[in-house]
Design brief:
about 325 residues, alpha+beta, Immunoglobulin-like, 2 domains, five-stranded antiparallel β-sheet, four-stranded antiparallel β-sheet, 7 helices, 17 strands, elongated
Amino acid sequence: MKLDRVLQYSQAYNFFQWVFGRHAPEPGVVFLSQRRVYILPTRHGLSFGVAVILMLIGSINYNLSLGYVLTFLLAGLGIVSILHTFRNLAHLYVSAGRVAPVFAGDTAQFELVFENKSDFDRHSLDLACRGARVSCDAPARAHRSVALPVKAEKRGWLQLERVTVDTRFPLGLMRAWSYVQPDTRALVYPRPDSAPLPPVHSDSDTGDAISAGAGTDDFAGLRPYQASDSPRHIAWKASARSELLLTKLFAGRTASELWFDWDQLPAGMHTEARLSRLARWVMLAEERGLPYGLKLPGVEVPLGEGFPHRERCLKELALYRG
């Protein structure tokens, strides 16, 4: 039992646990205690140490008093740099911030927040994850946010992997590092393809005419002009006042209602191609201000419009398991 406790508080034991053990996301705030910070000399630090040893040998061989002074001065400088490099990273608090959804193929920006509760600044903190690397400073008694870019290769949830936080401050002779894995993930939507909106036909069962236009019964407001808008619907007087080309919106029985149905897509399309096509249609319908709904096997999102409705549809597409 005593041996287990000694190993538990050993730097080598913690290091091998991090390197070879399985790592689960850490919820909440991660505290970089002394046992989680590792330190080793850099290549420049090793060269510096060899140079100090050679200077010491030369001073002993030739009995150089000033050589002793310079040698021990440099040796003391190197020892003090170990303390400052270790202190620059230890006792920091790391937590996960916000991360916005992205489309497959784009880069997700994971926000990490450093909290420095000490009375001195922390300089030159480097973060690395999956080839991406960013740097930041953590002022004394303050929070500092940094965005870590991670490539989103496929749709679904993208879990942030283990992040290496290291520093070589102040002289670059030592490298102190630690590992953190905050419990944060990004939602990755399917990559939209380049297909246009599908043609819309009238519904003979209900007798309601459904067209691709925006309706012509009641005036509903104005929006910025789009290339697909009819010139007859341009609000010339309002455009002259605002110096921005505006289009009139109408609502009524003939307002467009679009249903994006999984079963209406070509039978030969693969799952990912279907999801990309539906994501494209959702984006186009939202840009044009058209009400739309989504039908997937086992899932139906009713007609709606607006940013929350778009996010709900895209989330259903991102998390679809066929």
